[in-house]
Design goal:
The complex is a heterodimer of chains A (about 450) and B (about 100). With about 450 residues, chain A is α/β, with parallel strands linked by helices. Chain A contains 15 helices and 14 strands. Chain A is globular, with a radius of gyration of 21 Å. The termini of chain A are far apart. Chain B is α+β, with helices and mostly antiparallel strands and about 100 residues long. Chain B has one domain: 2-Layer Sandwich (Alpha-Beta Plaits). The termini of chain B are close together. The chains are: A alpha/beta (about 450), B alpha+beta (about 100). Chains A and B meet through helix 1, helix 3 and helix 9 of A and strand 1, strand 2, helix 2, strand 4 and helix 3 of B.
């Protein structure tokens, strides 16, 4: 029998600590939608997505009601469009983004990911067309998210694509400047991109994945923060143990929801993503957990060590709780989506360079960071190159989602609204890296990639 | 887990005042053919806490409607009332 204390602990997690399941994401393979005629391909894409995901939102809402567990987002990820569209005789891929957007709206989901290309070693003609279509596609759609894998530990870094992405990010910002460059909030570049990640903007269904699957992203920074409040002043071994126990419980809720969704939708269960995902709401912040370790502000010396421990303990607890773990699985440190992080930037306690250091030990990277709109393309490419190197050479996933906001400078605020939050524009080191980026080519895979 | 467990729920009533609350809640449950299997009442962290195990197998209403009904009762008396399937607690606290 469950004890009274256990009952109350669970109730408090939902009532006071914002425990929720962040997303149920249905991955749908679109490879059989390829067609020489782009209009036919788009019609097939729309039909397949709306057929497979017809009940996704309704089932998600019903599970939420039956279990009284909030499930915040219902989303869709698809096969990278550069693969699906390769057979079509067309140069501009905006029509594919529009088909995805229309299907997402018909299904009632709030994001669809997979306007993507995997170019870690080089670009196909189709990859090049997709990349060139990104700015227009993100400007003309509401729910489409785009991602690129630019590097991997096995292949090294595609620096030609890194160079292009600096320009593409600026163009995307320019085309969506009337909405604080929101297009860039839906565009992420990766090293070692996971193929089953349920979280946007980087979600897509990789070529090694099944026909259709359910991947679930959990959350729960508030639960970890509250648990740590009970062990103030105790040594770090106790802190690690406390995080592990909480992560286990949070993950079990995700596992329950994932299995139930899989059963009701009759779609195989893929993975649980153990990421702690913050929101701009008070009490739902990763930065505040790090401060609970004993730091005055997130960004103070000690932050990287605290984040490393947090990330590791969450994985250790979560792995025990689920049969299949995947995706990004770690702590997210987006600036605009985390109330404590926004506050730390405003106070000047955290810089881009410190965030870069933190990405060495967390799961994502430079995420949701607003920078001045006049930042040169090659500096954005340099930022991407550094992040890709951290991922590639340390065998981990890293990413960049920066937003150069036209017409705004350091200290100005940008507001994206909803879960995307708001952010102060951060200062960027202006020293040029143009000659380095202009070299292009590939950075070879690290020596430790040769494991065979 | 047996399918039967999907019909068992845990109801918690947390707050400072409980005059007439059990009567009120029992009436709602009885009106909807929901059986009370167990009640415990205790003071935890200085807060009045009642935990009720209920069986929804022949309930006339679903979880959502029951939750709403109880929330309304709770709000009028400054009590927090929640009802959640027992399966959730088992999953979270037992391997």
């Amino acid at each position: 029998m469950i004890t009274d204390l256990e009952v109350l602990e669970t109730i408090r997690m939902f009532q006071e600590q914002h425990l929720d399941v962040r997303t149920i994401t249905m991955g749908i393979n679109l490879m059989d939608c390829a067609d020489e005629n782009p209009d036919r391909a788009c019609a097939k894409i729309y039909d397949k997505i709306t057929r497979y995901a017809e009940n996704l939102v309704a089932v998600g809402e019903q599970i939420s009601k039956d279990y009284q567990v909030p499930i915040i987002n219902k989303r869709i990820s698809v096969t990278p469009i550069s693969i699906v569209a390769a057979a079509s005789k067309v140069d501009n891929y905006v029509c594919f983004a529009k088909a995805m957007d229309a299907a997402a709206k018909a299904c009632g989901v709030n994001f669809i990911g997979g306007f993507s290309a995997l170019v870690n070693k080089g670009c196909t003609k189709s990859d090049e067309k997709l990349m060139a279509s990104i700015p227009e596609s993100l400007a003309q759609t509401d729910f489409v998210c785009s991602s690129l894998n630019l590097a991997s530990s096995r292949t090294g870094i595609n620096m030609d694509a890194v160079r292009s992405m600096g320009r593409i990010i600026l163009e995307t910002a320019e085309l969506t400047k009337d909405r604080d460059a929101i297009g860039c909030a839906k565009l992420v570049v990766f090293a070692n991109a996971p193929e089953d990640n349920p979280f946007m903007a980087g979600s897509f269904l990789g070529p090694g994945e099944p026909e259709c699957e359910i991947n679930v992203g959990i959350s729960g920074p508030g639960v970890i923060k509250s648990a740590l409040e009970t062990v103030r002043g105790q040594d770090l071994g106790v802190v690690a143990e406390t995080i592990k126990k909480s992560a286990f419980k949070i993950t079990r809720v995700g596992e329950l929801v994932a299995r139930e969704a899989s059963r009701r939708l009759n779609v195989p269960f893929g993975i649980i993503d153990l990421s702690l995902a913050p929101t701009p709401a008070i009490g739902d912040s990763i930065a505040r957990i790090l401060e609970e370790f004993g730091l005055e502000n997130c960004g103070a010396w000690g932050t990287t060590a605290a984040l490393a421990m947090l990330n590791d303990a969450v994985k250790k607890g979560g792995t025990m709780a689920s049969s299949f773990v995947g995706g990004l699985s770690g702590a997210f440190i987006p600036v605009s989506e985390d109330e404590g992080m926004i506050e730390a930037v405003k106070r000047g306690a955290i810089t881009l360079e410190k965030l870069e250091a933190m990405t060495c030990v967390c799961s994502v990277g430079l995420d949701m960071i607003a920078i001045p709109g006049d930042t040169p393309a090659e500096i954005i490419s340099g930022m991407i190159a550094d992040e890709m190197a951290i991922g590639t050479f340390n065998n981990k996933t890293t990413a960049v989602r920066v937003i150069p906001v036209p017409g705004k400078g350091v200290g100005d605020m940008v507001h994206f609204g909803g879960l995307l939050g708001s952010a102060p524009i951060m200062s960027v080191n202006p020293s040029s890296c143009k000659a380095f980026i202009d070299r292009g080519g590939r950075i070879p895979a690290p020596i430790h990639s040769m494991k065979n | 887990m047996s399918t039967n467990d999907k019909n068992i729920a845990v109801m918690t009533v947390v707050g400072s005042d409980a005059v007439g609350i059990i009567a009120k809640i029992s009436t709602i449950l009885a009106d909807n053919d929901i059986n009370i299997k167990d009640i415990t009442q205790t003071i935890l962290d200085d807060i009045f806490t009642m935990i009720m195990i209920i069986d929804l197998s022949s309930s006339k209403i679903d979880m959502e409607s029951l939750s709403k009904l109880l929330c309304e009762v709770g709000e009028s008396r400054n009590l927090s009332i929640r009802v959640q399937l027992k399966e959730l607690f088992n999953t979270m606290h037992r391997i």
